[in-house]
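Researcher: Go.
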Amino acid sequence: MKIGIIIYSFSRHTLFVATAKPHMHAARIIDHFGLGDLIHNVYGSELDGTRATKTELLRFAIDKNPGDVERVMIGDRRHDLLGAVANDMLPVGVAWGYGSVDELTNAGAYSIALAPNELPGILTIASGLPGTLMKPATAESALKVQSALGAGFEVLEFETSTRTAADAAAAIGCTVAQIAKSLLFMAAESKRPVLVIASGSKRVDEAKVFTLLGEKIERADADFVREQTGFAIGGVPPLAHRVQPVVFIDDTLLEFETIWAAAGTPNAVFQLTPDDLIRLSGGAVADVAA
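Model: Structure:
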């Protein structure tokens, strides 16, 4: 059974649950799933109907836990987020519950996690906390990308892998959707390289690329990727390829002020704007997402 909402107090890293369910029932559910050690307290309604709304529940929880801290509420329905706004909390939506993305957006969500693995990045950004330890690039392939980018950008290396979009988002502290993943395909007839730069939260619709390109595409194998780009899968950047590919850019990336892209190795990335991406890659913006 789903508990309604979570309050996250960043300065103390403390988790709370607030739910319209009666407190006694909610507490039993938490204990049944073995979550008691992770959650500081559970706040619910009373059997007589006291604290039946999310706004009332959140106010009660905050009053019980005073302090100058930043609080974030995570919920899946409109009334969850409206309750957060009414109590000066940062409202974060999750798209795997009962509410739709449109419902959460219209309720004023600060951000919406499309999958559970996006939450750490969203919460890191909301709290102002740094992500995984990073340092200037030292690997040869990453330095090659740095050279191509110039002094206006900085390639960073992480202690952990940023090979997948989810890995990168968790390390950086951003949402998966802000990762610009470079996927190399091979044109079926001409055999030329085709680079699709897509949002980390999207899948590429090969039929749409076929319409844009005029020929079918096939996913490139590791040898083709290395031969055409000079980089290994997991670290392919959107520029500085050995052979210039045809480039298409997922139009949903233009929704963000800043995005992140791979920089030559499985743990190197750099930050840029969508306009930077268009200029550096020479790509055409198009609807390529499934």
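Model: The chain has ten helices and 15 strands.
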